[in-house]
Specification:
14 helices, 2-enoyl-CoA Hydratase, Chain A, domain 1, 5-stranded mixed beta barrel
Length: about 425
């Protein structure tokens, strides 16, 4: 009897344990990522990779915490494409309070299966801007209209796919309209207003969405959240794609190489400059850069180098500072504030960079003007004594040695002489008169 009781007791424990494991395994899993700052190419790759990881983990869905001032059109379209074709529900949540989904953020939010916002957030201002290498921020009327029509049609098509307000997204594109979270909910721009992720999950429980052409009911009861952080590599690429960081890397790179070339053998400045310049080139390839701005900055470095070679009494340096300042202002050609250099970064950077180049130029010029202490240059203006009468040619005693010397005037033996020129192994001298 005791054995049977023990056997049943073990069976009950096993069933209970299995039930607990099953309950844990049945809890829906949601991956959570943050998409902050300017939307660039690394941002698009991060979202695509996060979708792959969530799919591989058999997650119930992916929650994107969005806070962006806007960004690149190409990166925004890549993100929207990834979300529209995602094999699992994607919830875009403008969070926390004070966050925004401006410009490119509007389209990303509209592409989501569920669009949500926290109180105190806003969405809108999606008017297209000229973006692209060498592009012009001031488009002609025809091109501007084409870009605007294309953006409006794209926004409307995504809103229609998700059953949201086509009229409002068109206003956001054509009139840069921006609204609050509550207004967005009333106008059917978003689906939910929630104060935090817990409230958001409660609000979307049992909601049916269309995923990959099929209906799917989202389950959030007892959901497990797995917050994912951007990897080191992705974090670095995202950071340097910021216009301010890219600009500083460009200046550091040029300054490092300039220092290395003006002071050969320093090595470290050249290494740092080379690495910074390569990182800057990567960042510039992902941002709306103006060729004119790049050429002006490079031209400023050329002027600084020329100042060392040509004594212009500071005129070339002044030109270099002006060229550097103009190039910095024109470097990123976009009316989108998120894609321009902040004045709080630009002005100090120009002043520090200009000061650096001026100091290096001063040191180089001072080194050139310094008196030589070796070689034939060091002998010029040196003083010696005529060892013989010099009638055309003769001998002089200079620094413990006898040298063949020549002079266009006769110099008597024993007279003090000054070297005015060195021609091979012959010294051209002149007599030092009393009082000189």
């Amino acid at each position: 009897m005791l054995k049977k009781t023990s056997f049943f007791f073990v069976i009950l424990l096993w069933i209970a344990a299995a039930g607990v494991v099953f309950a844990q395994e049945s809890k829906p899993l949601f991956h959570v990522i943050e998409l902050n700052g300017v939307i660039t190419s690394p941002s698009a790759k991060y979202v695509a990779q996060s979708l792959e990881e969530a799919t591989a983990a058999k997650a119930e869905g992916l929650i994107i915490l969005l806070d962006t001032p806007g960004g690149l059109d190409t990166a925004m379209r890549d993100i929207a494409k990834s979300i529209l074709n995602a094999p699992l529900p994607v919830i875009v949540y403008v969070y926390p309070s004070g966050a925004r989904a401006a410009s490119a953020g509007v389209i990303i939010a509209q592409a989501a299966h569920v669009a949500a916002m926290a109180p105190g957030t806003n969405i809108g201002a999606a008017h297209p801007v000229a973006i692209g290498l060498g592009g012009s921020g001031e488009m002609d009327k025809t091109m501007s209209q084409k870009v605007e029509n294309d953006a409006a049609a794209y926004a409307r098509s995504i809103a229609k796919t998700r059953g949201r307000s086509e009229e409002w997204v068109e206003k956001a594109v054509r009139k840069s309209e921006s609204i609050t979270a509550d207004e967005a909910l009333k106008l059917n721009v978003i689906d939910i207003v929630a104060v935090d992720i817990g409230k958001l999950l409660a609000a979307i429980d049992k909601r049916t969405v269309t995923v990959a052409g099929a209906k799917k009911k989202i389950s959030t009861a007892h959901a497990v959240l797995d917050t994912k952080k951007m990897g080191t590599r992705q974090g670095i690429l995202a950071a340097i794609s910021n216009p301010n960081i890219a600009y500083l890397l460009l200046l550091i790179g040029l300054a490092g190489l300039y220092f290395e070339f003006s002071t050969p053998g320093a090595i470290l400045p050249g290494v740092i400059g080379g690495i910074s310049l390569l990182l800057a080139f990567f960042a510039l390839s992902t941002l709306p850069v103006s060729y004119t701005g790049i050429l002006l900055i490079l031209f400023s470095v050329i002027l600084f180098i020329a100042e060392i070679k040509i004594m212009s009494h500071g005129m070339l340096t002044v030109g270099g500072v002006i060229s550097l300042a103009l190039g910095s202002f024109l470097l990123f050609d976009s009316p989108e504030p998120a894609l321009r250099i902040s004045l709080q970064v630009l002005l100090p950077a120009v002043l520090v960079a200009s000061g650096f180049f001026i100091v290096i130029i001063g040191l180089a010029v001072k080194a050139q003007m310094r008196k030589h202490y070796s070689g034939t240059e060091a002998m010029i203006d040196g003083r010696g004594e005529a060892a013989t009468d010099i009638h055309g040619d003769g001998k002089v005693f200079f620094q413990g040695e006898y040298w063949t010397a020549t002079s266009d005037r006769e110099i008597p033996k024993g007279a003090p002489v000054r070297i005015i020129k060195v021609e091979g192994l012959k010294l051209v001298v002149e007599e030092i008169k009393e009082g000189k």
